[in-house]
Amino acid sequence: MAGEDNNLQVLNALDLAKTQLYHFTAIIIAGMGFFTDAYDLFSISLVTKLLGRLYYTKPDLLKPGTLPPTVSSSVTGVALVGTLAGQLFFGWLGDKMGRKKVYGMTLVLMVVCSVASGLSFGNTPKGVMATLCFFRFWLGFGIGGDYPLSATIMSEYANKKTRGAFIAAVFAMQGFGILFSGIIALITSAGFDHAYKAPTFAENAALSTVPQADYIWRIILMFGALPAGLTYYWRMKMPETARYTALVAKDAKRAAQDMGKVLQVEIDPEDAKIEKLSRDETNKFGLFSWEFARRHGLHLFGTTSTWFLLDIAFYSQNLFQKDVFSAVGWIPAASTMNAVQEVYKIARAQTLIALCSTVPGYWFTVALIDIIGRFAIQLLGFFFMTVFMFAIAIPYHHWTLKDNHIGFVVMYSLTFFFANFGPNATTFVVPAEIFPARLRSTCHGISAAAGKAGAIVGAYGFLSINLRFGVWSKFEKNRPMGFFLDFLEVKSFQFFVGPNLDQK
User: Fold this and answer.
1) pTM for this prediction
2) Sign of CA dihedral 351, 352, 357, 361
3) Per-residue confidence at 265, pLDDT binned at 50, 70, 90?
4) Contact status, residue 143 vs residue 83, Cβ threshold 8 Å
């Protein structure tokens, strides 16, 4: 790992340790935080249509109510804005106060704001949406801190041989979080539909949305507090990472004691070496120094630019899956369903995509990242994302025909598979490996924040164009833009990070 003195016995012990129980414990604990992040970020897409029916359906409308453009973009994107801010703030704080303490702060914030997101001040549309947006911003702020801290914690606990797989396994919990949000939505909507029978909107518009449906979106959003709360308890039982304790806090004795218990071996604290490192001026350069720019400037530019470009496409595809499926007819027209049935249909579609393509893509990366390398997976993912986007874009009208819906879903699923067996995973792994310990959390936070800036472009920009000008289908037909973005991602990753990343 960049910038570390691997002659320290405690660090050598970590690098050379055999894979054992504490590695898998660290994956689960750090990964459950990321599981919660994904649940909270993507569950909103399951309930936005329900919110429109509940609060914006008028008696004289001929179709179910929908969220106004400004409200829709705010509800969908405000958590991303909070996440960007949280990544920068908590990434920096993680290098100042330690991974363990700051990670606990982010989890507490996530628990509180997950519960609060399901509450509202008053029962008017304005009051409910304002409350939801307020707490989802702060929920995103907490989620933002989890990105650099989860990656850094796993990176600093891992051994050298399987470090990439362990960090990728933490990130792979995102797939389970997306899947779990769909499952919770399925169970909740199915239960309410069974308990409160309602006609479709076409049969009786006034009765198609039962009052009890207001509980559905609240339950789905508030459920995200449970895994975050469980994660907090177990995370506080883990010791601080030895790399932070030894190299940043300069407490060699504590680092040796902590890792000695974990690895069940005797480790020499080597106080003299730590003292020498603390006096070494060459290892004291800061983030805004020429020395950092010389050593890591291109690395940081590479990790930020690729993550930014990727997330424009990745988040717009994830957050607006329901719109894509509605456009091609895989989800029935809203007027043919009641409000609860619509939640069920959307959740079923997104759960199938997650189960068949999103989750497997992550775990292909886990299995192969330390065998074929980061660069190869990055390049492979970009290439096949481009191929399948073109396969959807060029004969677009063909896929909208009813007989071809299954083919469209297969092709669309493959874009998700190769996003995750590709750049979505590697952009998370790389920043946790190539920066020095005292700046690792900060640099990962900056890289992740650049990604969220891309996600904001996707959420606000594309949604605004779609809602204001009604050109969703035209945009889909113009998907060669996806090829252009993929091309830029490949070139920037290759030039700034380099094909020999795996040896760093």
Assistant:
1) 0.84
2) positive
3) low
4) yes
Contacts with 475 (C-beta within 8 Å, 6 or more apart), sequence order? 462, 465, 466
Q: Tell me the Cα Rg of the chain.
A: 23
H-helix or E-strand spanning residue 250 = none
Q: Scan for tokens 């660090």, then name that residue.
A: 11
Report the alpha-carbon distance of residue 253 to residue 12 in Å, rounded.
Answer: 15
Phi first, then psi: what are they for 330, rounded to 5°? -75, -35
Which among 320, 321, 303, 305 has a CA at the least distance from the CA of 454? 305
465: pLDDT strictly greater than 70: no
Stretch 128-156: mean pLDDT: 92
Neighbour-count burial of 154, counting CB atoms closer than 10 A to its CB (0-12 exposed, 13-18 middle, 19+ buried): buried
The answer to whether 458 touches 452, Cβ cutoff 8 Å, is: no
pLDDT at 403 over 90: no
Query: Helices 69-97 and 21-42: crossing angle, nearest 10°?
Result: 150
Q: Answer yes or no: are the C-beta atoms of 100 and 239 closer than 8 Å.
A: yes
Closest to 28 (Cα-Cα) out of 162, 164, 154: 154
What count of other Cβ atoms lies within 10 Å of the Cβ of residue 282? 7
Sign of CA dihedral 224, 32, 385, 442: positive
Q: In terms of DSSP H, where are the helices of 264-356?
A: 271-279, 290-319, 321-328, 339-353
Q: Summarize pLDDT for 53-82 with one digit per residue, the tens.
A: 999 988 777 788 888 888 888 898 899 999
Whose tokens are 């919660």? That residue is 36
d(CA 79, CA 423): 22
Spell out where 91-224 has E strands: none
